[in-house]
Structures are given as structure tokens and as C-alpha cells.
What we know:
mainly beta, Cathepsin D, subunit A, domain 1, 2 domains, 8-stranded mixed beta sheet, 9 helices, 30 strands, about 35% strand
Amino acid sequence: xxxxxxxxxxxxxxxxxxxxxxxxxxxxxxxxxxxxxxxxxxxxxxxxxxxxxxxxxxxxxxxxxxxxxxxxxxxxxxxxxxxxxxxxxxxxxxxxxxxxxxxxxxxxxxxxxxxxxxxxxxxxxxxxxxxxxxxxxxxxxxxxxxxxxxxxxxxxxxxxxxxxxxxxxxxxxxxxxxxxxxxxxxxxxxxxxxxxxxxxxxxxxxxxxxxxxxxxxxxxxxxxxxxxxxxxxxxxxxxxxxxxxxxxxxxxxxxxxxxxxxxxxxxxxxxxxxxxxxxxxxxxxxxxxxxxxxxxxxxxxxxxxxxxxxxxxxxxxxxxxxxxxxxxxxxxxxxxxxxxxxxxxxxxxxxxxxxxxxxxxxxxxxxxxxxxxxxxxxxxxxxxxxxxxxxxxxxxxxxxxxxxxxxxxxxxxxxxxxxxxxxxxxxxxxxxxxxxxxxxxxxxxxxxxxxxxxxxxxxxxxxxxxxxxxxxxxxxxxxxx
Length: 481
């Protein structure tokens, strides 16, 4: 069966307090495999490392290229664009982990075959072109069907004609339920082999990138974008939820040196991915400048990380997940059972007071630098709540089909809020700690009020309680919130 074959992580939605959270669920291994061919290649770092062009936020060109993002409760980041002539306003999920841009037709919404917020009316546009090529985007849970189309898209001050997207005219029940009229679809910004991509039209799985459209039309000086994700502090929707800057870097939202890393070649160079040197549980008294390393996690296998703004949490292989949570409890001085993973919910629950004792997590990525840098996540970065309980924003996920990567992490919004990230289609990813960034909502209000009473408590013991851990098998070529 021929599809456009973008297989996403298994997702569903769970209503927690006033926000909608999409969570990873178990899927059988027999689901649709990845369609793209995986190549076992390795890129030398020195050939790809270069400094990114810096555009200051005060520069007039950068103002034109900057677009604000809406943060919906720390679980999704959305950009407002206009499609068609006259313009029709859409709210699209910004996803660095997938390629296709799509929205549904208004007819599909009216007939209740689709469940987007507004959708698009092609009959009302003078510039719409239906390529009549059927397209099916298949997810681990859920899929949509539609047609490849071309249209005028307005992104901030930029206008691009004949931009390729999928106009959906059907969503299965799983995807229908996930959408819940929260947005109008998705804009895919993944790597797809960057400037080396086959753009001749012979690859049915390739979707032209908006960034490359802008670059080829000389609207930006280089095929490059940067991303800043802001936290909500209280789990609500905020319009100042972040920024995507096309063609440069906003100095306001980064601190320290921007370190560049080569895009790893796993998965046919489809993803914005990095080779991992080490994942560690850091000592509690670690500092950002001189972190103190603790236990090494998942050291037995070569590991990679996919940077995916379309995933809310962190995800790691199920075996690594167990090792991580066990050692996190020990290193943090928690008692047996203080962190409990539940396969029914897919979440690891932790007492909200004890959560504040959790040790930092450190991620070090492979580079040509002789002084590797470790990016730390503190407890308030990777703990979330449902209004009364606290959970680790980390889940088990076994990606199948990426044969050249034994161990793959997915670093979603939890990680990307901590850093300012840049994406160069010439083959590099840049990371620096973010600045002027609010935290996400980590603790319920009741816990915040009583937290000070628990300061100084010393928890002893070790171990971890699981209510049963199962392997989460999901298939992913695009990771979609």
C-alpha cells in the first residue's frame, strides 16, 4: 500500500485539569514500518562545524523574520499563518520532528470527518492548486488522508507562492480525537537531508520545507532557523509562548556560547538528530558552569537524540528508562516506591514534595570540541503536574526501523525550553542555554504553598517501585503532538 509514510509516535490525549495532554501509549510491533531507507553512514564533525550567522534582535531584517508562538499549557507550540487569496488564518503546530505541512478542509470539518479549529476552504481561494496526488499520513495511532496541494502562504512578513501542503479530507477516529479543535494542523520543519535532499519529485516521501522555499526565493540569506520556547509558569495558554526566527539568531533569548554540532545521519538523515556522548544523573549540588557528573545512563549502546518540538516530554528506550528512573531515585536519596511507573497511564508518578529533591539530568553531545559541554535539566524542567499530582516528563519509547541507531532519545519541549536551538540545513544544530525564559508549570499550586515547610528534609534509602513496566513500541518517522 502506497502512503506518504510518515509514521508518528503513538499518541493519545488525556485531560489533566484544564489542559489537554497527549501521551505515548503502547502499540504492537506489527504496525506500519518506516518506509525510508536507513543508511549506515557517519559524518565527520570537523567538516560540518561552522559559526552561525548572528542577526541581532534589533536589526530590521530580523524583526521581519521573527514570528511569535502560542504555548498551549506547555504541551504544544503553535504559529499563526495565512493561507490562500484572500488570506485564511490558520494555527499550526510547529514540529521539528516531521516534514509535511497539513491542514483539513472546511468541508471535512463540516461533515465531521476532521476535527480542526477552522480549517481551509480551497473554493474561496484564487491561488489554490490541487495536485490531485492522494496523500496518506499514517501515525502509530491515527492517520489522515488528503491531497497534495499548492497555495500562497504568508508567514509573518514573508509570502511564498506554490507552497506544497496536504489538504486533509479524512481523519480516523484516533486522530480526530487528538485534534479536538485545538489547532488547524501542523507545519513540518524536519531536516530531510537538508540541502542534499532529493527535490526532483521522485521521492514521494519528501515534502518541500518552508525554510528552503524562503531560501530559494532569496527571502532569507541562509537555510536556517532558530527556536525559543517559553514556559507558561501555570499551565495556561500564553501568546508569548516562544519565537521562531527564520534566517538568524535572536541574542535576547540565548546566554553563553552557541555550540554547533553536526546533524547525525541516522534514519536516512531525516531528523534533526545528534550523537549522544553521555546521559548522566548529575550531583544535586551541580552548577551550570562546572557540573558534577553522576551515574552514566545507557552507556552500553551508542545513542542518538532527535530534537522534536512536536513532542511534549522526553522519551528514551524502555530499557534505558528503567535504568534512568532507578538511578534517579538512588542518586536523589529517595526511598523504594517514591517513583512509580504505571503502564496504564504511561507516566512515572512522584510525590510533589519529593520531586523537588530530584537530581539534575545531564546531556552531552558528540562534537569536535576538546571540551565537551553538558546541558543540564533540573527537576523543575522535567516534572509536570495534573493539578494535584506530579509526574516525570519522561516516558519509555522504543523506535523501530532506525537500524543504524541502537538507542534513540527524543528530546521534546522539556529539553527545548532549556536551550536556544538553531537548525541549519547545511548540516548543523546549534545549542546554547536559553534566557528570558519562564519555567513550565511543574508543581500544583497547593504544593507550591506548602513546599517551604519541607525544605531540609533528608530522604534516605534507595530503589524504585514499579507497578509494572512494559515496553512501549511506537513507530516514528514524524513525532506529532
